[in-house]
TrEMBL record:
Keywords for the protein's UniProt record, in alphabetical order: Signal
One Pfam family from the record: NosL
Signal peptide (from-to): 1-21
Matches recorded under Gene3D superfamilies: 3.30.70.2050
Source superkingdom: Bacteria
Organism: Tumebacillus algifaecis
Keyword Nuclease: no
UniProt name for this protein: Nitrous oxide reductase
Amino acid sequence: MKKQNLLFTALAALLISTTLSGCGTKEVQPVAVDEKVDKCAICNMLVKDDKFAVELVQENGKAMKFDDIGCLFAWAAKNGTDQVQQQFVRDYNTDEWVKIEKAAYVFHKDIMTPMAYNVISFKEKADAEAFLKQHGQGSLLTYDDLTKHSWEMNKEMMKEKMEHNHSGSGMSGM
């Protein structure tokens, strides 16, 4: 009888520890963008559900949205990332969410982004390279490169964008 109790206790302990260890490994997923409600945590502009949307999920589960990757880095510089569980960017071609550290990036001063930080993201490095080849200019960056990047808004582009928005004409990309 003692042997059965010991075996039962060991199996119960194994089951409990397996169940508990599985709880901590749940993968964080991005939260859908609501274009009517979600505002960028830095510039307060509405976030579009498009190729420029960026998101971070904090340890407490709160999702914060940004309309430009530069805004995310501005927020991180101001607030730190100790409480950040995961960050996501969108693939420029498909709008698919990608973990920020797994994406490839292209920077060029003429790439039009919502807040003129001029960086776009791609799920696959080959897609970023194809974009560079097609446009003949720009730099290929990794997430590590972004952490060292000089996040300066292209003020000339923003000024031009504001003038065009007030005159009613849209702006095209690169």
